[in-house]
Specification:
Helix content is about 75%, strand content about 0%. The protein is mostly helical and about 400 residues long. It has a two-stranded antiparallel ribbon. The protein is elongated, with a radius of gyration of 27 Å.
């Protein structure tokens, strides 16, 4: 007979059951950790055995289920992975569906091709998750399944939410999808997604900022500029919105307005280094090198990656090539995929006789973000802008 401990007002505790649960979880955790270690060493088959042992001791362990499914997926054993996924959902549906969503997000943030393919699995396990339905629709669209895509959009609109604020917000899902589309060959399809996000949650200034930047980057800077009165009415003193209009006016070729917006941005947020950055960039592009130097050539600006690349461009313009390279190297070390910094460094390599290194960087930039390059060329002083536009004309970009 199981022993119990009881007090007058407290419920009885089944000590034997408690000990058995602790023992099972302890041994289950041991096998789980062993399986993770084995998988890291490349011993996937042995890892699977350890995960099964963990589940034998601790059948409701969400972590063990998830590691088992992940390992099977990595090994290409899709049928077994799907069987394991369904078994896990039957045992512990909440964690597994949340785990699937977190995994899809991690892949998405890493720009992995597997990201979108995971979302239909989340949507199947969790039909009320708006985020899963939005990204599933995009996956169906890319794989030429319009009926499924339309159905997923419809479910997204009617979805009550998910397990956190991000999954619950349909606007946030549209926003993330727009960001993903911006990096795709069909970057112009990001605009309807931004528009949906802004319409659903107009108080979110970051949605509007990204939409303005997207418009400018795909050659629709005039449309972004036309939105300025409405944007200022909504966000009369938002430095981030002002920064977006600095870039829009620069790309549209109105340097005076860009400088005015940059000055206003720095005035609204004097403690925000981005204000000085955008004001300094506007002055540099407009040809006011002295004003740009006063804003950009400071320790505060040089300490941030974006500031370092703007400073490098300024120093290059001034003919200080060694200092310019040091600034660009800081940015490249902190953010090696920054296309703007990559092209700035390529220009420097051209002017220091390293033609092959320069060409390699130009080709890498073209491969990574061809749609953005012409717009980004407008965010440089005239000598760099004209050189890059000639290159892009020849390349057909």
């Amino acid at each position: 007979m199981a022993s119990t401990i009881s007090q007058d007002s407290a419920p009885a505790i089944d000590v034997d059951a408690w000990r058995a649960r602790i023992r099972a979880e302890t041994f289950g955790s041991y096998h789980l950790e062993m399986g993770i270690a084995l998988r890291r060493e490349g011993a996937s088959e042995k890892a699977l055995e350890s995960f099964e042992r963990a589940l034998g001791q601790w059948p409701t362990s969400s972590a063990a289920h998830f590691e088992l499914i992940t390992t099977l997926d990595e090994m290409g054993r899709r049928v077994e992975a799907e069987q394991a996924r369904r078994r896990a959902l039957a045992v512990n549906p909440r964690y597994v569906r949340e785990g699937l969503l977190e995994r899809a997000r991690a892949h998405r943030l890493a720009n992995s091709e597997d990201a979108l393919a995971l979302y239909p699995q989340v949507a199947e396990a969790w039909p009320e998750c708006a985020e899963a339905q939005v990204f599933s629709s995009y996956w169906y669209e890319l794989t030429n399944r319009p009926v499924q895509a339309a159905a997923a959009w419809d479910k997204a609109v009617r979805a009550p939410g998910g397990f956190d604020d991000e999954a619950r917000s349909l606007a946030q899902s549209y926003y993330h999808l727009a960001i993903m589309r911006m990096a795709s060959p069909t970057a112009d399809t990001s605009i309807p997604c931004f528009e949906r996000a802004v319409a659903l949650e107009p108080e979110r200034s970051e949605f509007l900022m990204q939409m303005l930047q997207a418009l400018a980057s795909i050659g629709l800077a005039d449309r972004a500029v036309a939105m300025e009165p409405a944007a200022k009415a909504l966000f009369p003193a938002d430095a981030g919105v002002e920064m977006s209009f600095v870039a829009s006016h620069l790309i549209a070729g109105d340097f005076r307005k860009a400088m005015d917006r940059g000055e206003r941005c720095a005035r609204i947020a004097p403690d925000n280094v981005d204000g000085a950055l955008f004001h300094g960039l506007a002055c540099l592009v407009a040809g006011d090198i002295e004003a740009s130097a006063a804003l950009l050539n400071t320790p505060r600006v040089a300490a941030v990656p974006r500031g370092a690349t703007y400073l490098g461009l300024l120093l290059h313009t001034q003919g200080h090539l060694a200092e310019a390279e040091a600034a660009h190297d800081r940015t490249r070390r902190d953010n090696p995929q920054d296309v703007f910094a990559m092209v700035n460094l390529a220009l420097l390599y051209e002017d220091t006789g390293r033609r092959q290194e320069a060409e390699d960087l130009h080709l890498k930039a073209i491969a990574g973000a061809p749609r953005l390059l012409r717009a980004l060329a407008q965010l440089r002083p005239v000598w760099a802008r004209e050189r890059l536009l000639r290159r892009y004309d020849v390349a057909g970009i």
